[in-house]
Amino acid sequence: MFCVVMDLPQPHTRFQNYNKRLLNATRAVCESTMQKAAKEALVENNSDNNIAVAVDGTWQKRHYMSHNGVVTVASMETDKVIDVDVLSKYCACKNKQNHEKSCKSNFCGSSDMMEMKGACNIFKFSLTFHNARYTKYFGDGDSKAFDAITEENIYGDEFQVEKLECIGHVRKRMGSRLRRLKEKIKGQLLSDGKRLSGKNRLNRLTDSQIDKIQNYYGLAIH
User: Fold this and answer.
1) What is the dotted CATH code of the domain comprising 12-164?
2) Which partner for 135 in 50, 53, 73, 183 could form a disulfide, CB atoms 3.0-4.6 Å apart?
3) Could you tell me which of 91, 93, 95, 82 has the C-alpha nearest to residue 123?
């Protein structure tokens, strides 16, 4: 693991014991610092254990073709990571039907489902690990993980998870849809006899105007 982090060649097998020690030490530091960060988040939230968190997933490779993924949860109060869940489809066992005790595979399914699974895992154990409920969910434009959490009703009817929208992503979606609309009806005349876009001075929707609309919309909902 140390060599992967430092971008070094794989060491000789006699160094594997040291790699295991480094892994154990890294895991211990990770868990203790996240516990400390979670306590700080509760203090910043006036000791209310219903806190707001930012949730995001990442993969070892792009385009959802990765065997490994990580879901991270950070406090909105402190910006510090308080929970992670590592998911892996990679199995090095000789007998795939009978996994070895040391097998790291803990997920079965398509890679794009890792974020949903990891987010649900983290939310399910938030009370156990940190005595906290993640009742406000701040994520990107993809709401699959949030939908999965809502469907499982993890904290019961009394504590529903609320989704917080990222203004940046909302602005981005608006711009993307306006550009798709402009491309879709390119060259067509509207009911007033004018085109929506183009180089003609009568045209009204240009890329620069879309950028302005995005900015104005972001300011309006801020």
Assistant:
1) 3.30.420
2) 50
3) 82
